[in-house]
Structures are given as C-alpha cells and as structure tokens.
Design brief:
alpha/beta, Rossmann fold, seven-stranded mixed β-sheet, 8 helices, 9 strands
Length: 235
C-alpha cells in the first residue's frame, strides 16, 4: 500500500471473472470457505484471489486500526494490481458488507456477488444502546467470542466508520446477479438481514437461499458444496 503496509494474498490465474473472497470480522484467508473455494477454482481453471486485511492473518498492521474503508481500499488496490477484467465478489459476514462497498467501487467490472450471512450495517443493529454510547465515547467494546477463548473487540474507529458506511436505509446501486446464502439458525446475523438486503439491491437478479439448520459460518461440507455450486451459476 502507499503507506508501506504489506497485504498478504494468494492469487491463482485462470479463466472467467476472477473470484475474490472477502473474509469476515477477525477472519483471514486460511479459513475453511476461503481455502475450499481457492482449491475448487484451481481444479476448475478459474481465477481466484484471497487476501488478509491489514491487522489480520499474515498482513501487516494492528487490528485496532482496521476499518471498512481501510479494508475496502486494500481490496481495491489488490484487484487493480493483480486482476484483469471482471470480478465476482464472495463475502462472508462482515465480508458481505465489505463486498457491497467494493462492488460499488468496482462499477462495470463487477460481474456477480455471493453473500454468506452478509452483515451490512451491523455497527447499528449488532450493538445495544449502551454499547453504541461506549463506542461513540471513544472506548472499545469487548464481547464473548463463541469461536475462541479471547473476547471479540470492537474499536471506536471501526464503529464510527461503519456508521458512516451504512447501506440498508437506501437503494444500493448494484445491478449484477446477486446470490445471498443465510442459515436460519444463525445466532450472529439475523437471516432477515439478507431479505432486507435483497430488497435494497437494485438488480432484478437477486436470489436468497435460506438454510433452515444452517449456522452463521455455513462451513459444513454441504454448506461449502452449496457455496461452490452457487458460484458456478454466475457468469
């Protein structure tokens, strides 16, 4: 990056629009969905790009400095440097929010999108009034982490930037094919969020798939097969 930050990535050349996977909050490109998609792309001869946001995985930086805008700029810089032609974005949880921001920046290069428990605007609906007041006052919030031993932090800079990048209160000017996958047993992101997002996206080609027993991660073998099958249906 221009300021010297180094962003870790994996890029596989291939045919068709390049598939770019955007991980969730505090996740990285070593996750099960990302690696499964990258491996499938190799077998199918498809171009694919994985990355770690700054402060995550093998990238430089401090997680406390991370924001949606900062990570969007990193994704765009990598796409500009590594990818020719069109792009299919695949975003998981927070990555589904980032997917929308990147998609809007890509314009006509955006060929398709796949959201996995996409979580746009979670800085608003994901925190109670007391937590939002704490963050607005410049203090971090720590929450129990169901996926690891350490609490999950939210830092004021991320929260403020998220509030500035909310999308669900107005039409979203994305007109490519969009597929949204969401588990109805998701305890982190209400599945109704995907229905609301489908209403806001301007594209007429939006399909929502609800998995009745699916959790937030949708990382079981059947879930990953569904994800890959969904990506295969896009241009």
């Amino acid at each position: 990056m221009p300021d010297g930050r180094r962003i870790a990535f994996r890029h596989r050349a291939g045919s068709g629009p390049t598939i770019v996977f955007l991980p969730g909050y505090m996740s990285d490109m070593a996750g099960g969905k990302a690696t499964a998609l990258f491996d499938w792309a190799g077998g199918a001869g498809r171009a694919c790009l994985l990355l770690d946001y700054s402060g995550c995985g093998d990238s430089d930086g401090d997680f406390a400095d991370g924001t949606l805008s900062r990570w969007r700029d990193e994704v765009m810089a990598l796409i500009e440097a590594q990818v020719e032609g069109e792009v299919v974005l695949v975003g998981s949880s927070m990555g589904g929010w980032l997917m929308l921001l990147v998609g809007l920046a890509l314009g006509e290069r955006l060929a398709g999108m796949v959201g996995i428990a996409a979580a746009p605007d979670f800085t608003q609906w994901g925190y109670d009034e007391t937590q939002r007041a704490t963050l607005a006052g410049g203090e971090p919030v720590f929450e129990d982490n169901p996926y690891g031993p350490d609490p999950t932090p939210t830092f004021p800079a991320f929260w403020r930037d998220g509030q500035d990048n909310r999308l669900l209160d107005a039409p979203i000017a994305i007109r490519c094919p969009v597929r949204l996958l969401h588990g109805q047993a998701d305890r982190d992101v209400p599945w109704e969020t995907s229905l609301r997002l489908a209403e806001r996206i301007e594209s007429p080609d939006v399909v929502v798939t609800l998995v009745k027993d699916g959790d937030h991660r949708l990382s079981r073998d059947a879930d990953i097969a569904r994800l890959i099958g969904t990506v295969e249906t896009l241009p």
